[in-house]
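agent: user wants the full assembly modeled, not chains individually. Plan: 1) parse entity lines 2) check alphabet per entity 3) run joint structure prediction 4) return tokens. Steps 1-2 passed, two entities, 941 residues total. Proceeding.
--- entities ---
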Amino acid sequence: MDLRTPEAPPTAEERFAVDSVLGPPESGWFGGERTPLDGHVALGGLAKARSRRHLLLPALHAVQEQVGWISLAALGYLCERLDLAPAEAYGVASAYALFTFEPAPPVVVHVCDDVACRAACGGDPTEELAARHGPPGSGTTVTWRPSPCLGHCEHGSAALVQKAGAGGGRASLAPFTAGDMDRLVALGPQVELEDLPVPLALVPQAGAEGSQLRLLRRVGRLDPSSLDAYRAAGGYEGLRRALEMGPSGVIAELEEAKLLGRGGAAFPTGAKWAAVARNPVRPHYFVANADESEPGTFKDRVLLDHDPYALLEALTIAGVTTGAEKGFVYLRGEYPVAAARLEHAAAEARNRGLLGSDVMGSGLRFDLEVRRGAGAYIAGEETALFNSLEGRRPEPRNKPPFPVDRGLFEKPTGVNNVETLLSVLEVLAMGAAAYARQGTPDSTGTRLFCLSGCVARPGLYEVPMGTTLGSLLGLAGGVAEGRSLRAVLLGGAAGSFVGPEDMDLPLSFEGVRAAGTTLGSGVVVVLDDTVDMTAFVGRVARFFRDESCGQCVPCRVGTQRQEEVLGRLVAGRPLGSVGDELALLADLDQVLRDASICGLGQTASSVVTSALRRGLLGNGALSGNGRQP
Amino acid sequence: MTTMAPASTPVALRRNVELTVDGEPVTVPEGSTILEACRAQGIEVPTLCYLETLAPVNVCRVCVVELEGSRALVPSCSRPVAAGMVVHTASERVRTSRRMVLELLASSVDLSTADGDVHRWIDEYGARPERHGPSAPPGDRDHAHAGHHEPPEVGLAATVAQVVKRDNDQYVRDYSKCILCYKCVEACGEEAQNTFAIAVAGRGFDARISTELDVALPDSACVYCGNCIAVCPTGALMFVSEHDLRAQGEWDEDRQEVTRTVCPYCGVGCNLELHVQDNRIVKVTSPLDHDVTSGNLCVKGRFGFEFAQGGG
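--- prediction returned ---
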């Protein structure tokens, strides 16, 4: 390939941002200043430049944060450095919501208007904002944009503040009010991100009498920056045990504990680790999927903000057990606090020999990197996540081959989400037998649930698998202000509704499967009779329209069409009869579920279909008999 | 010379695999795809993003088939056969998904210059694009921001309609006709030309083929080999000559003669097919099955024909 990059040179600021990630250019042939001598020497290095393509996303982040947008010249310079075609780099960058390609105000406030915050306020949380500060994108120094779920659902409102230039970066604000926006607008570019209050985590069970928290037991009780505090609380005992037991011992323990993945597919963790461990192809990789973006989900944020060492320890155990020497934490880009704390924790762990060439004196090598997403729900799909880490478009890959055979960089890769990895620590701490005694015989252990919406005590809860929905809601104090329950969204945008009659539903993998629903990522959005259900379901349809990667036709066009049909039904302007429209929705549901490439498309119609089946739309006037899954 | 032949060719080493397609046993070489197995049986499976000369990307999903034991349908173009597979190509589920894929495309894309097969399939599968409503007016798709969109007016169906891009003398890009099959990106990239002038940008319904930040082709890496035109199944990428004749209502394939010849420029021996209408060359292609080109040409073979008609 003969690289052709744009002729306009980057500004000093853009160059600085790219170099902060890639280091200074090695020669005039890779973005450095050309001297006459460069015309007379032949240099290699193309393969090396290309091998750093995985740094594309970090470098794009650097430019976006430094300058506030990504210009053609900045993109061109970045491409010279990586020997990457600018069209490809643009294809990658433009797939992420947090990158912009036109000059933007230095302060951009992304305001959540997604399902949990809607349920909490009963309507559209951005309405007042628009009335006071104009439509999205208005304002010269401070502007706002609506955003999908920012993962602060327990607060009922949230914003992510992005500031460009010196002292720039991202900060979360939750709860977030129109008054906060007034203050941000008044401060303008003078706003200091460090001065903004760090959002709290709500873990209502913490400290409660008789609570037997496992996964959450350290949250709020330890200084998240202190490795000593983590070790004093029993931290890194799991790694010590894992090193004593050896890979086969750990895997046997996980299998005996019957630990199932908490990501939604409920794949046995021991079997996955075993498949990676025995794969003869080297190297192996292990990835912690912390790209939690399912609307209504905030458990990773709580865990990583307050217990970052736990994830590092668990990932290290995964690495030494599966023969991976390199791990990645793929963290959603909207979690600046977790990013900083994980980076700090990793540095501390490296200093103490808990990461590196001799993990805990075992002679084994394992290290990890924290990588940030940039606003793409689809990047949480494991194969799209690999593409994202590799600096490619976050598009899901065809399966098979599965990640344990060909994953990150085409190598055998293990990938688990944060809750699964932290559950491994509990298996090792308690022993498999004791762990398996929690929960139900088929769904062992405890499970985290993210309660939000119209609930008296929203927050992150931990209960044994199989706890009924009614008792979980009881723990959280029931419906807020004693109003009556209309429905509960289980599992997030990819989940489905259950109703007041489902309080006996056991929250276990087999329990929800039998009821035709899903635990998904543990989302429980409580909806009372004041919530505008039509707007709520419409928001889910918009979410999938915005988050589809666009690769396959069923999802790319189907999510667009689904949003349109819903719009017509809500407006009372069906094309043909209402029955025709419901038949169309049923067809869309079928092609999405049957013919989409990945789980996003396959679940994109789930909430809409579920709402119709339960008569939750149009005051119950609309009820489809969509085909049962 | 038989002594020169290897003892056994790789093809001879391929074992046969037996599977069942629509109730009939089928035996194909190991490593074949389900699509190849179907074609070996004479079963027509519609395809849009598939091309023999490119690695399958399985994005259009019109070739899906039902594979027993698989929860979702599988793309036949890319799924390798395995012994004992039981495949159904005409079940209700398969027909529904194919109908919907065709319907979704036909409701959002101008298929007026697409291959004839596409229109036949739309009829055969009973796709009804009109039930999605009248088309919304064209939009500015090149500046769509990932994760944000304005829904179209209630009652209108969003489409990919937009202004034709005409920024060079060789070919036009009418992305109102683009089904996003990725073929042009593959041909421009590592599958053929290794130029990487275009890629898929944006996401979701706003996903589009684009140069970096939508710069015009002359400012991009494009070398005008036209290999993207050669693989485009819908006429979104078209010779200026063809585009203009169509616009004037003068394009008439019945009046055209296709002459196969060898490219006069260098010694590689690429075969050209000169499409001649009214004694003027209006388009140049190369046979897909030609062992030198696999359908690909360079700028000279593809566009360097003006000298032959006094325009050089």
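agent: reporting back. Residues 227-436 of chain A form a domain with the Rossmann fold fold (CATH 3.40.50.11540). Residues 237-257 of chain A form the longest helix (21 residues).
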